[in-house]
Design brief:
13 strands, seven-stranded parallel beta sheet, six-stranded parallel beta sheet, alpha/beta, 359 residues, globular
């Protein structure tokens, strides 16, 4: 039975790029489809217009790369929406107060943002506490995409927001992810799938490989998929350490869901994370993940069961994990897909977001 007709607004500071279709795009597409089935009208607000994928079927408004929040306030805030939902929008700002001036809508703020490894500066912490005191009252529900994110929201804005803060995990489409049937424990292969920037920690991985013995260096090759502003620095580091045979930089690929299954392990040495969709996609491909103890990583990875966890920036610990895998002292035998099927599927994520509209 469909929900009585509703009209909702969704604001996303998320640029729509046909060459970069990721997990959130699939979520937006499926959420829009499910809303139509339930007679829920959705107005989408993005920085730009797009027609790739299912965006051609969206009721989409573009701020033309200006601030999405300001565009919404100037042109659409007086529309009669039952719910206004934000993604990738800064929380607890005057925007939320200004929305409430013109609307009785339920406001739901979804937090996808990772936090710095060492936390915010003292000044930033005080600013966030003040913003939480001034503006959290205008947000009806805070949603974190991991338990880690929920804890950080409460830490940022004050304990008073705890009673209206919940976790709704991100999810991935698993049906079209090819599965690795048999792992090669004798000659394991490795990939990285990441935007290439300093916070992703790939420089630590290079340092870890540099510490391996010559015999083990000859046994390891790591394919790096992705692009970004840090690429040239990483390439130069590889060259200076003489590791050209150990790293191949494959660039961005649109078919990663078909590529994961070609490898035995995924490496994600990140310094900051919220809740990684690439980890979930790797697990869905039955490819264990070696990653750091940041963000929600430990909510998906159980050490020694579906991957390995080490402390962020500890490249010696990473070197030791790689060494033990290459020497056959460590191996993951569990099928890692089951966890994603049960807990982190895209359909479950969409259903949970639809349920928020009952609030």
């Amino acid at each position: 039975m469909g929900i009585i007709h509703q009209k909702i607004a969704i604001l996303c500071n998320y640029e729509l790029l046909p060459q970069r279709v990721g997990g959130m795009d699939y979520f937006f597409w499926l959420f829009n489809e499910k809303c139509k089935e339930k007679n829920i009208e959705v107005h989408w607000f993005f920085p730009n217009i797009a027609t790739h994928g299912n965006y051609k079927n969206f009721n989409l408004y573009a701020s033309n790369h200006d601030n999405v929040e300001n565009y919404f306030l100037e042109h659409h805030s007086q529309n009669q929406y039952s719910h206004i939902i934000t993604h990738f929008v800064e929380l607890c700002t005057p925007f939320f107060k200004n929305v409430k001036k013109n609307s009785n809508a339920t406001i739901i703020a979804i937090d996808h943002n990772p936090r710095p490894l060492l936390g915010y500066s003292f000044k930033k912490k005080i600013e966030k506490k003040i913003k939480g005191f001034l503006y959290s009252k205008y947000i009806n529900l805070f949603v974190g995409v991991s338990n880690y994110t929920v804890d950080e929201i409460i830490k940022d804005f004050g304990n008073h927001v705890k009673k209206k803060t919940i976790t709704v995990y991100n999810g991935v489409i698993i049906d079209d992810i090819k599965v690795r049937e048999i792992r090669d424990y004798d000659n394991p292969s490795f990939l990285v799938a990441s935007h290439l920037r300093m916070s992703k920690g790939i420089q630590d991985l290079i340092d870890a490989v540099a510490l391996l013995s010559p015999v083990l260096k000859n046994k390891i090759t790591i394919a790096v998929y992705g692009d970004g502003p840090y690429k040239e620095i990483l390439l130069e580091k590889v060259r200076l350490l003489g590791l050209e045979k150990n790293f191949t930089f494959e660039g961005s690929k649109s078919n990663l869901k078909e590529i994961f299954c070609n490898y035995d392990y995924m490496l994600q040495p990140t310094h900051m994370e919220c809740f990684s969709l690439s980890i979930l996609e790797s697990l869905a491909a039955n490819v264990p993940v070696i990653t750091t103890n940041v963000g929600g990583n430990e909510e998906a990875i159980v050490n020694n069961t579906n991957g390995y966890i080490y402390k962020a920036k500890d490249y010696i610990a990473l070197k030791n994990i790689l060494e033990k895998i290459l020497m056959h002292d460590l191996k993951i035998t569990k099928n890692t897909r089951q966890l994603v099927e049960e807990k982190f599927s895209l359909s479950k994520m969409v259903d949970n977001h639809i349920n928020l509209l009952q609030i």
